[in-house]
Amino acid sequence: MAQPTISFEFFPPKTPASEKMLWESIPLLAALAPKFMTVTYGAGGSTKDGTCETVLRMKKETGIPVAAHLTYINMPIETLRELTGNWWAQGIRQIVAIRGDLPEGLAWPLDPDPAYFQQTSTFVKALKSWNDFEISVGAYPEKHPSAPDSKADIEALKQKCDAGADRAITQFFFDNDVYYRFVDACRATGITAPICPGLLPIHDFAGMLRFAARCKTSVPDPIREQFSGLEGKPEEAHKRAIDILTRQVRDLAENGAEHLHFYTLNKSAITREACEMFGFPRNSG
Ligand code: FAD
């Protein structure tokens, strides 16, 4: 079986409790030898400093490459140029380049304004031209909610890859067949960049359902059934979550996935246990 590499996403902590959780999780997950880790960027720049500080501390404490997510919506091009110039000067070399969700009351596309990026592909191209960042972009196996159809969505991904993205990381999904079909469709349009599956450990079933509804990610019936009757039974729910994630990881690896990206939500237990059951840490190179 092929040996996938792994990566982990975190978010900048906003409270003392979430700060504690993050920094307790980092060494436990870093011990699995991920290829890289990433830190999200709050909508509209709400975590600008938090993202950079978290990235730099994670890099320093683990020695593992860490990517900063960056959204461009609502931020002038010149500000983005200055910000990423500062990041480069501080040693950040990887960016997850993302449009960002629209603030309340705004519809896409925004009124054209030459001071702002209008397309993620243009953003990717500019980032590459400003500094030699390694760039990841988002991909949507079940279609981005705002895309008119799957064809347009895959075309948008192709434009981001043609603009220089080094890899795509997908929105989370639970049905691997959806991912396999998506990858086939991407390859058929000429996308050659790695399309890394994004996996969400189910820490809180009800919370996951709300999140999935927002992202339009489908939750297959067998997963719903496995959590049925487990309200108030956290230990059993935890075991089911590990089992679901382990099976998903095994199937992806057996079907040739070269890299797996975990949305950790800053928690280590389920991701770590699923990865360990699957044989990590390995020689993640
Ligand atoms: P894009 O690729 O730009 O667009 C998504 C779809 O919208 C396209 O496929 C296209 O069909 C359609 N579209 C794009 N441009 C146009 C246009 N001009 N006209 C009509 N339709 C258009 N959000 C955050 O706030 N912070 C984060 O750190 C963050 N990290 C993420 C990381 C990953 C791996 C993923 C998958 C998502 C992340 N998000 C984050 C969520 C993201 O901001 C939203 O999904 C956002 O709505 C889309 O961003 P994008 O860059 O992937 O989309």
Task: Give the topology.
Elements: E1 5-10, H1 16-30, E2 36-39, H2 48-62, E3 66-71, H3 77-89, E4 94-98, H4 120-130, E5 134-139, H5 150-162, E6 167-172, H6 176-188, E7 195-199, H7 205-215, H8 221-227, H9 234-254, E8 259-263, H10 269-277
The structure holds flavin-adenine dinucleotide.
Structure description:
- The protein is α/β, with parallel strands linked by helices and 285 residues long.
- It has ten helices and eight strands.
- Helix 2 (48-62) links the parallel strand 2 (36-39) and strand 3 (66-71).
- The mean pLDDT is 93.
- Bound molecules: flavin-adenine dinucleotide (FAD).
- Flavin-adenine dinucleotide binds next to strand 3, strand 4, helix 5 and strand 6.
Residue fraction in strands: 15-25%
Q: How many DSSP H or I helices?
A: 10
Q: What is the approximate shape?
A: globular
Low-confidence parts: none
Largest sheet: 8 strands, parallel, barrel
Mean pLDDT: 93
**Compounds present?**
flavin-adenine dinucleotide
Beta-strand segment tally: 8
What is the share of helical residues? Answer: 40-55%
Listing every helix as H and every strand as E from the N terminus to the C terminus, the arrangement reads EHEHEHEHEHEHEHHHEH
Oligomer, anyone? single chain
